[in-house]
Structures are given as C-alpha cells and as structure tokens.
C-alpha cells in the first residue's frame, strides 16, 4: 500500500499497452509511465528514483523461470535500503 504522496514507476514494453498506461497516468498523477524493456533497467535508470517496493509481472512462465533471479539482481539498484516498511515509491514492471 502506497502513501498518498508515493510514486509508482510503471514500466511497459508494448507500445499498445504503453499508450494505455500513458492515458491512465494522465488521470493518476502519482504514476510515472516508462515505455521501455524492463529487462534493461540501465536504459531508464535516470528516470527512476529509489523505491521501497518492486513488483514484476511476467506474461510468459518460461521467461519467469529464467529471468526472475537476474531481474531481482538488476532491480536491486532501485531499492531504498533505509526504508524497511516502505510505503513511499514503487517500481512496477
């Protein structure tokens, strides 16, 4: 659960879904849409601040098995270690 002033960085690869994400973010001002491949966080690192929560949804089970451990290591650069019970910012992939 996010605090009212928390931010959500939403990363979407698909241009079609990304367009929907951008339209939704116009109504929800705490959502920052990023249209990029989530498997390459270095490409959008300059857009994302430190986060307390990372949520990743993978569409294909096979990719989930292969990529999950790798992505956890990559996304660790975004985690705010000062906040154990975060409720500030989230990164959704």
Word description of this protein:
The chain is an alpha/beta fold. The chain has a single domain, classed as Rossmann fold, CATH 3.40.50. Helices cover 30% and strands 17% of the residues. The chain has a four-stranded parallel β-sheet with strand order 2-1-4-3, with helices on one face. The two termini are 17 Å apart. 15% of the residues are buried. The mean pLDDT is 75.
Write the layout of secondary structure elements.
Elements: E1 8-12, H1 15-27, E2 31-35, E3 53-55, H2 61-75, E4 90-92
Parallel strand pairs: 1-2, 1-4, 3-4
Lateral arrangement of strands in the main beta sheet: 2-1-4-3
**Rg from Cα:** 13 Å
The share of residues in extended strands comes to 15-25%
Number of domains: 1
Got a strand count?
4
What would CATH call the class?
Alpha Beta
Largest sheet: 4 strands, parallel
CATH topology term: Rossmann fold
Distance between termini?
Answer: 17 Å
Q: How much is the average pLDDT?
A: 75
Q: Please tell me what the overall shape is.
A: globular
Report low-confidence residues grouped into runs of 5 or more: none
Helix content: 25-40%
- Name of the CATH homologous superfamily: Vaccinia Virus protein VP39
Quickly give the CATH architecture.
3-Layer(aba) Sandwich
Give me the strand/helix succession: EHEEHE
Specify the number of helices: 2
Query: What structural class should be given to the helix and strand makeup?
Result: alpha/beta
């Amino acid at each position: 659960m996010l605090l009212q002033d928390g931010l959500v960085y939403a990363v979407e690869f698909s241009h079609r879904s990304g367009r929907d994400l951008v339209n939704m973010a116009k109504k929800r001002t705490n959502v920052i849409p990023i249209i990029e491949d989530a498997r390459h966080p270095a490409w959008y690192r300059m857009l994302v601040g430190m986060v307390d929560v990372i949520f990743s949804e993978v569409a294909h089970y096979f990719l989930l098995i292969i990529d999950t451990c790798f992505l956890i290591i990559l996304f660790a650069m975004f985690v705010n270690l000062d906040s154990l019970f975060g409720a500030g910012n989230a990164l959704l992939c």
